[in-house]
Amino acid sequence: MLSQTTIVSVLAGLAVAPSVLGASQYNLVQDYSGADFFQGFKYNESVIDYNNYGNVHFLGQSQALSSNLTYVNSNGRTVIKVDNTTNGQGDITFGRNSVYLMSEKTMTMGSLLVFDANHMPFGCSVWPALFTQGQKWPEQGEIDIIENVNQATKNQYSLHSGANSGSCVQPPSIFSSQTGLSQVSTPNTPNNCTVLPTTDQNTGCVVQDSSDGSFGAGFNSNGGGVYATLWNDDGIKMWFWERGSAEMPSGIGGKGALDPESWSMEPAAYFPASGCDPSKIFGPQIITLYIDICGAFAGNDQVFQSTCGSIAPNCSAMVPDPRNYDNAYWEINYLRVFSTSSSSSSSNSSTHSNSNTQSGSNSASASGTLFSSRAGNMLGLVSGLAMFFGVAALL
Ligand SMILES: *[C@@H]1O[C@H](CO)[C@@H](O)[C@H](O)[C@H]1NC(C)=O
Ligand SMILES: *[C@@H]1O[C@H](CO)[C@@H](O)[C@H](O)[C@H]1NC(C)=O
Ligand SMILES: *[C@@H]1O[C@H](CO)[C@@H](O)[C@H](O)[C@H]1NC(C)=O
Ligand SMILES: *[C@@H]1O[C@H](CO)[C@@H](O)[C@H](O)[C@H]1NC(C)=O
Ligand SMILES: *[C@@H]1O[C@H](CO)[C@@H](O)[C@H](O)[C@H]1NC(C)=O
Ligand SMILES: *[C@@H]1O[C@H](CO)[C@@H](O)[C@H](O)[C@H]1NC(C)=O
Prior knowledge:
Layout: H1 4-20, E1 27-32, H2 36-39, E2 41-43, E3 56-58, H3 61-66, E4 70-72, E5 78-81, E6 96-98, E7 100-107, E8 111-119, E9 126-133, E10 142-147, E11 156-160, E12 169-170, E13 181-182, E14 191-192, E15 205-208, H4 216-221, E16 225-232, E17 235-242, E18 269-272, H5 278-281, E19 285-293, H6 295-298, H7 301-308, E20 329-339, H8 357-368, H9 375-379, H10 390-394
Bound molecules: 2-acetamido-2-deoxy-beta-D-glucopyranose (6 copies).
Domain GH16: 30-302
Protein name: GH16 domain-containing protein
Keywords: Signal
């Protein structure tokens, strides 16, 4: 009698039960650092950046390792970088080598993601991102943890949701319960997370961090810091602490259980369940980390001019010179996922049956072959954050 869907839903209900009952211990379920980092991620190889039209080639694992774009440095930290040795001068088809990493395991509701880096990619034309995405985009949502471009100094957090997943907004009533600034034009407008990929409504609901240490040069000169993202039945909260911040909750940096529901400090960004149902809008999330160059966001003329207009006439003029990429690297201490459900992310007890990324990656590369040069359609669109997957979604 029970359909498979019902069984899966029942299992999903059990999986979140501990937090419903009031226990809020988040135990370590995924731990990536040093060389282990690369074991947990696959390299989404692609000679063309179909989603964002960047001037990049994303290398496969063996090429990335042999060209030293991913390695562990002498401090034991994980380095992920853009090629800064190849001179592309005179080659009009030049695309710089970079990498696009996606976690093998997914993250489910009832999780806390903690990311500690000493350095993030930075510079004119550089577009780094740490985000999570469902296997179907935008239907299964996207959570942007670190993202901005060029010489921006403040990080931007955002959610993206599908138009058919139900309403997902950040209500104005909570704008004062976060330290970041919601990027909406009028104070009474809800910050709308729904994206309509074929239109210019594709930026999601963006919140800008208040600290100049949260992105780019400032982040790097402080020796980096720690980002935490909590996704539970109360909604989604993101925090950032600069290196050495006295506000960092105890236990961060260790592998012991954490209790983020007890943290008293306001998050930098807060997307409460009252505006965006965290169980309906987001499917199991693939952790994604990459570095793009130019493309729909960094290369947007208006965006580029705002912080790099005095450096180069346009974004693509930066790309041939390898010296422009000496700062285009992540140097990571660790990325950890803590969860209230010990079976989270590695078993089949999620609301969606595809809980490993193999199928996601298959469908992604399948769609990758279906389109060629939609870039022209998109380049004219407004400045926007994360036109992520805009083209893929046209399918
Ligand atoms: C992998 O990269 C290809 C090419 O850029 C892209 O179309 C696809 O969406 C990516 N896959 C995911 C899951 O992001
Ligand atoms: C990669 O790094 C190793 C060790 O530092 C070095 O021997 C090798 O030449 C580098 N390879 C490239 C392609 O830069
Ligand atoms: C958010 O955007 C979607 C898509 O345009 C729209 O249908 C919805 O009404 C918007 N929500 C609000 C509260 O404005
Ligand atoms: C960017 O600037 C360079 C150098 O001035 C110029 O040659 C090139 O045509 C420009 N590209 C675009 C897309 O405007
Ligand atoms: C490239 O960038 C690295 C830092 O990631 C730096 O150590 C190196 O000197 C840069 N230049 C070259 C030519 O490798
Ligand atoms: C989980 O799902 C995979 C793929 O559908 C299947 O091969 C595997 O047997 C399932 N594992 C369990 C424990 O049900």
